[in-house]
Design goal:
By secondary structure, the chain is of the alpha/beta class. 45% of the residues lie in helices and 14% in strands. The chain has three domains: 20-182, Nitrogenase molybdenum iron protein domain (Rossmann fold); 196-313, Rossmann fold (3-Layer(aba) Sandwich); 316-449, Nitrogenase molybdenum iron protein domain (Rossmann fold), CATH 3.40.50.1980. It is built from 20 helices and 13 strands. Strands 11-10-9-12-13 form a five-stranded parallel sheet, sandwiched between helices. It has a four-stranded parallel sheet with strand order 2-1-3-4, sandwiched between helices. A four-stranded parallel sheet has the order 6-5-7-8, with helices on both faces. Helix 8 runs parallel beside helix 11 (254-264) and helix 13 runs parallel beside helix 19 (425-441).
Length: 456
């Protein structure tokens, strides 16, 4: 058990200070300084969907950390608090504020719940989440957490993640900044940190995280901490000794990485390992940061070896894929990253949905497809018009957009049904090729899409 007696109360430097305004308007954001873009990051608007608020983002980012308990300071009517409580875990708690708590305050209830969790479950860290309700009644959870931390001798970390602050990505940013402010730098790592890196990601399952670990360790890197993954909290505390922070499709965490660099001098790079081309670029960018000849040679040797194996694997698909026209209908999740991947297969992307992409991802999609395809803001209304102009052979979609492809009688590949949705690295590109091949050759679509007997 980590107690305050065996963990340094302060790191070698004071913890970084930040304001919430910094999370909305950061120099790392592409919109800063541009007159043609929005003045600040996206915020929630009245009547918007509550399923992706800051509380959910913060909780999803922090909950995989091992040895921690999570206490949501809210009434049971909070939508996301109730969803989290339904998950199968003994480490998720809620203070379930009643009407009298909202009127007279719930400090004693919060203290009692923290005391119960600490003595019954003995976690290494207790994260206490502020919600809309506890924020609006003025509960000072930072002061309460500090006093209980002194009393109990374990880390009590307040997470200022009131849902009305913003969308899910902002919650991830708040959680990352909270770790930087409270836990990172509190413990020295036990492993050699000569080639140590921190990986930062969000929404990755265990299989995907393992794929990243294998990829980077294969070229001699040591994974000191994987933020957004199931790391031990001691590992998170020692992450300040890494030589480089690697952000994997994690634009929302860029401000955290910049603050990390200001505090500890650890540089950061933003990468994507989505397919072979992006993986090669990512590994070479990382090699440049280390400026080490041995690392560069090991990376180049692996790239040659893996590319050769990939070409042999995908050779059988070239005839099938060559010239095929593809539409991408995804709900914003890395949809732009499929464009170079499909072009490597000899396929032509004729349309892509950008309805839910953030500004940075829209720019990436435009750079990759401008002059070669169409952009859809409303696929339900625009897809048929595009189809009348250009024939489409296959649609890469998610569950929300399957009906669009089905109405048009076009074979579709549903990413949500795939066991490896991010198609990481060289093996991931081969896996995508195999999935698309099965979709194009399956007889199911011809059977399902044929006219019924009474229309023949």
């Amino acid at each position: 058990m980590i107690t305050l007696s065996n963990v340094p109360q302060n790191s070698t430097q004071p913890p970084p200070r930040f304001l919430f305004q910094d999370l909305f308007d950061d120099t790392a954001c592409s919109h800063v300084g541009s007159k043609d873009k929005k003045a600040t990051c996206e915020r929630l608007q009245p009547g918007s969907n509550v399923s992706g608020c800051a509380l959910e983002g913060a909780f999803n980012f922090l909950s995989p950390i091992q040895g921690c308990a999570h206490l949501i300071h809210s009434s049971p009517t909070c939508y996301n608090a109730s969803r989290i409580q339904k998950r199968d875990s003994t480490e998720h708690f809620c203070t379930t504020l009643a009407l009298n708590d909202l009127i007279f305050g719930a400090e004693e209830k919060l203290k009692m719940q923290i005391n119960h969790i600490a003595k019954t479950y003995r976690p290494r860290v207790i994260f206490v989440y502020m919600t809309c309700v506890s924020s609006l009644i003025g509960e000072d959870i930072e002061r309460i957490a500090k006093s209980m931390q002194t009393e109990l001798g374990i880390w009590i970390v307040p997470v200022m993640s009131a849902g009305f602050l913003g969308v899910e990505n902002l919650g991830v940013r708040i959680a990352g900044m909270t770790l930087l402010k409270t836990l990172i730098g509190r413990k020295e790592p036990l492993i050699d940190t000569a080639y140590a890196i921190n990986l930062w990601g969000y929404g990755l399952n265990e299989t995907q995280r393992m794929s990243y670990r294998i990829l980077f360790e294969r070229v001699g890197m040591r994974i000191l901490a994987f933020f957004g993954g199931d790391e031990a909290v001691e590992t998170i505390m020692g992450a300040h000794k890494a030589k480089l922070n690697v952000l994997i499709n994690a634009k929302s965490l860029t401000p955290v990485a910049r603050k990390f660099e200001e505090q500890y001098g650890v540089a950061y790079v933003e990468t994507s390992c989505f397919g072979a081309r992006a993986t090669c670029d990512a590994l070479r960018v990382i090699a440049e940061q280390f400026n080490d000849g041995a690392v560069c040679r090991k990376i180049e040797n692996m790239i040659r070896e893996k590319n050769k194996a990939l070409q042999e694997t995908c050779k059988a698909f070239h005839t099938l894929f060559s010239g095929k026209k593809v539409a991408i209908l995804l709900n914003g999740l890395f949809s732009w990253a499929y464009i170079p991947l499909l072009e490597d297969f000899g396929m032509h992307v004729v349309a892509i949905s950008i309805e839910n992409l953030n500004e940075d991802d829209k720019e990436k999609a435009v750079d990759l497809l401008l002059g070669k395809g169409r952009f859809m803001y409303d696929p339900n209304a625009e897809f048929e018009e595009i189809l009348s102009e250009v024939p489409i052979d296959i649609v890469i979609t998610d569950t929300d957009h399957c009906a669009i492809a089905s109405r048009a009688h076009i074979p579709f590949f549903n990413i949500d049904r795939c066991s490896e949705p991010l198609f990481i690295g060289f093996e991931g590109e081969a896996a995508l090729a195999a999935e698309l091949s099965l979709t194009l050759q399956t007889p199911v679509f011809n059977i399902v899409y044929q006219n019924p007997p009474w229309q023949e």
